[in-house]
Structure formats: structure tokens, C-alpha cells
Amino acid sequence: DPGKRTNEPAQFLHHIQSGTCIIDLWNADSLFHEGSVIVKLKRLARQGEHGIQSSQVFNILNHGDSVGKLHLRIANIGSVANVYDVKDLTTSAIIDCVDKDR
Fold it and tell me: Which stretch of DSSP H or E encloses residue 53?
């Protein structure tokens, strides 16, 4: 239904501003759950830029205890004509974060 799609940009923006992504980390050999990381998506709001990248370091939590660190680079890139044309991201804003509230 095309009528239901008219609010998608606003819903996506709300999701980016207030949403989180939970990443579970597993040991590939033992299949043991090592812990989880919670990523706030608001760092991916492009705010008029063609793309944004964020390099962050997260504490890996297991039952509330920090068991390690995860270094993660995430990006939100606007429409790209061809995947093979993505050779230069110099227009992207790069943010380095060291927030303690993650």
C-alpha cells in the first residue's frame, strides 16, 4: 500500500535518533556466548551529509561485567549509483567517540 510508505523517512529518522543495535559476540570454536555490545544508532544520523562513519570502542558486557573491548567502525552512506564506484569517501564526516555512556 503506497499510503503506508509516506511516513517511512520520518520513522527511519526516529529509529536512528532513538534506536539501538545489540550485537552478540560468540566464540566461533566453542559456540560460547562471550557477551554483548549495545550501539546507539544516533551516531549514524547523516544530518545532510552524503555519508557518515563512526569509529567507536565498546565494552563487551557479560552479565553486567566487562569482559573485553570491541573496536567497531560503522557507516551510513546515502544512495550510491554503483557499489564499484565507492572508491572515495572524502565527503563523509568521520567521528571518533570515547563516550562513557554507551
Answer: strand 51-62
Instruction: Give me the mean pLDDT over the 47-54 stretch.
Output: 81
**CA proximity to 69, closest of 61, 78, 81, 77:** 61
C-alpha cell belonging to residue 49: 551529509
- The strand pair at 20-26 and 51-62 is best described as unpaired
* Cβ(66)–Cβ(19) below 8 Å: no
- Give the model's confidence band at 79: pLDDT under 50 very low, under 70 low, under 90 confident, else very high: low
Residues in the chain: 102
State the cell numbers at 56.
Answer: 567507536
Count the alpha carbons within 13 Å of 64 in the hemisphere toward its beta carbon: 0
Backbone phi, psi, residue 83, to 5°:
-60, -35
Report how far apart, in Å, the C-alpha atoms of 68 and of each of 8, 14, 84, 89, 95 are.
37, 31, 35, 30, 22
Of residues 3 and 58, more confidently modeled: 58
